[in-house]
Amino acid sequence: MKKIIIFALSLAFSALTFAQTPLRLPTILSDHAVIQQDADVKIELTDIILGEVWLASGQSNMEFAFRDYDRSALDVGDEVQNARNNELRFFRIDHDYSVFLQEHLSSGKWEVCTPETADKMSIIAYYFGKTVNEKVGAPVGMIASYWGGSSVQARMPAESYARNRELKAKAEDLTPVNWCPTTPSSLYNSMIYPLKNYRIAGTIWYQGETNTEHPDTYSELFSMLIRSWWREFDTEFPFYFVQIAPWNGYWQTSGALLREQQELTLAVPKTGMISVGDLVNDITDIHPRIKRQVGMRLVNLALSEYYGISGLQPYFSKFDKMQIMKNKAIISVKSYSKLAYKGKEISGFQICGADGNFVGGSQPSNGANGSPTDVSERTLREVFFPPFRQSVDAGAMSLMTAHNELNSVPCHENEWLMTDVLRGEWGFKGFVVSDWMDIEHIYDLHATAENLKEAFCQSIMAGMDMQSSKDEDLLKETITVK
């Protein structure tokens, strides 16, 4: 049986600040109550309701509010103008930090959901609370404790990693910024610890972007955060979180590694994760503007796992196995519903070679692995090039170009790729090798040459050294021309 939480709207007294006061509650509560502490003290609470209270925490993607008009959400319509609900209430905690534990919050009060109060609230938390209220039929209170740009370390109690010197050193290894405190425990002390005596139903969490600086320790830190909150709140409430969205500003593979670390955290009981990789409207924006659907995926997870409502599908697809079939790697996933993707080609795949280095690649659609690929030079240099550069530095003597067109130029005749970068910048001294029939495809697939002879000529002039081809005579003739 779940514990019912009492929360109230009172101008004079906040339910969050009297949690530690030894007060005597009346047997029956209505929308008006008088709590007697002693003969001389009387505290009056008005507009009291019984319901579920959830804590929303994290950084800027959780903090993203309706009022962020400079980067407004794309999927909320006129929701905020119609946001009137006496059974949905918000408690927003202002940004605050401290190096010492604080017994009381420096700000905050319960507010009824209106267009004015909802406008300042996290979009994700709003839709989460609204939907729980609609589906469960109980009043809902959402406590907002978030700060854009903050790290997981800032919300962990100091004792959680004080006994582990190595982890403590890594926890303190954060680059200082001017928009948020980076000191470990500084936000926990002032924005989480004062809530410890308040009974909450669970937590929703969207954080991790800041921790891509050192992604390898995130699962350990995040798992410790969850368990430390359970100890402090004296209850193992559910903890549902968002896997960070793709963004092309992360250093090399740090974003992918952080997402992997987040999935590892699912080993902690009573946790759940949603994936939002398909909800990114602009890969260059670290704040995807599709927010309602994020809130709905989180709430569907809570409704299914915590409230036991059937008929929902809140689970993301998971890797199952890989099989090598000749020159192909077949990836299988487990999915609870139909898989779909946008566009003609699934991008973002990387393959790890025997040397431990990841090579950027993609999964072709319908066998069209020679299809056009549009990639920015920054992404090429930060994501795709590093493993090839490492191979050159390690003494590799042959490299093969890809099937695809790169920004409208077939890789097998891309002078910038084979000559300017590979030889000019990296000092490659070996052989550039073509894949089977790919020079022929310059003519018959990419159509950037008028005939096969011209295709061979263009490829060789761009920097190609060796070709896997059945047209040996034509190749010899072309080399003679060169």
- Estimated radius of gyration: 28 Å
> What is the number of beta strands?
19
Described by its quaternary structure, the protein is single chain
Major sheet details: 8 strands, mixed
Per DSSP, what share of the residues sits in E-state strands of 2 or more residues? 15-25%
Helical content (DSSP H or I, runs of 4+):
25-40%
Q: Indicate the mean pLDDT.
A: 82
**Low-confidence spans:** 1-6, 8-30, 363-368
Overall morphology: elongated
What structural class do you assign from the helix and strand content?
alpha/beta
C-alpha end-to-end distance = 82 Å
Q: How many separate helices? A: 13
Structural description of this entry:
This protein is α/β, with parallel strands linked by helices and 482 residues long. 28% of the residues lie in helices and 21% in strands. The protein has helices at 60-63, 115-118, 123-136, 165-172, 186-192, 218-233, 254-264, 292-305, 377-393, 415-425, 438-444, 452-462, 472-481, and strands at 5-8, 32-38, 41-46, 48-58, 85-92, 110-113, 140-146, 202-206, 239-242, 271-274, 318-325, 328-334, 346-352, 358-363, 372-373, 398-400, 405-406, 409-410, 431-433. The strands form 6 sheets. Strands 1, 4, 5, 6, 7, 8, 9 and 10 form an 8-stranded mixed sheet that branches. Strand 13 (346-352) and strand 14 (358-363) form a beta hairpin. The radius of gyration is 28 Å and the shape is elongated. The protein starts with a strand and ends with a helix.
